């Protein structure tokens, strides 16, 4: 058996072993979603709702394109929008720090600290 065949065999057996828990967890997630869907009284949008949303979106786009819209915004509204953007950016940065588990950069080990596994 060559290395490619061994790797394929190992990958296949691992996939078979993992397929049971993955399928089970997918079924559990589906049942939970179904219960939430029913309990919250959710339903797909009707044709009228889709049309209303489309019309509202087109109306918004047309009004945003007109030059007078931007002239009518006060400095206070620009300041509030800037603060909301800064807040969103701050949450993004905090998420990045949490994801890296480090304040600056990623905690990468140098090549010298790795042991050789031959």
Automatic annotation (TrEMBL):
Keywords: ATP synthesis, CF(0), Hydrogen ion transport, Ion transport, Membrane, Mitochondrion, Transport
Compartments it resides in: Mitochondrion membrane
Pfam family of the protein (one): ATP-synt_G
GO biological process, one term: proton motive force-driven ATP synthesis
Keyword Ion transport attached: yes
Sequence similarity: Belongs to the ATPase g subunit family.
Record's protein name: ATP synthase subunit G atp20
């Amino acid at each position: 058996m060559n290395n490619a065949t061994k790797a394929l065999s190992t990958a296949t057996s691992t996939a078979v072993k993992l397929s049971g828990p993955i399928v089970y967890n997918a079924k559990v997630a589906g049942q939970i979603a179904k219960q939430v869907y029913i309990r919250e009284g959710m339903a797909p949008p009707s044709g009228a709702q889709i049309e209303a949303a489309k019309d509202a979106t087109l109306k918004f786009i047309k009004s945003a394109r007109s030059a007078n819209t931007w002239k009518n915004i006060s400095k206070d509204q620009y300041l509030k929008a800037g603060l909301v953007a800064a807040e969103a950016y701050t949450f993004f940065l905090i998420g990045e720090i949490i994801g890296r588990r480090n304040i600056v950069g990623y905690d990468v080990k140098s090549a010298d600290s790795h042991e050789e596994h031959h």
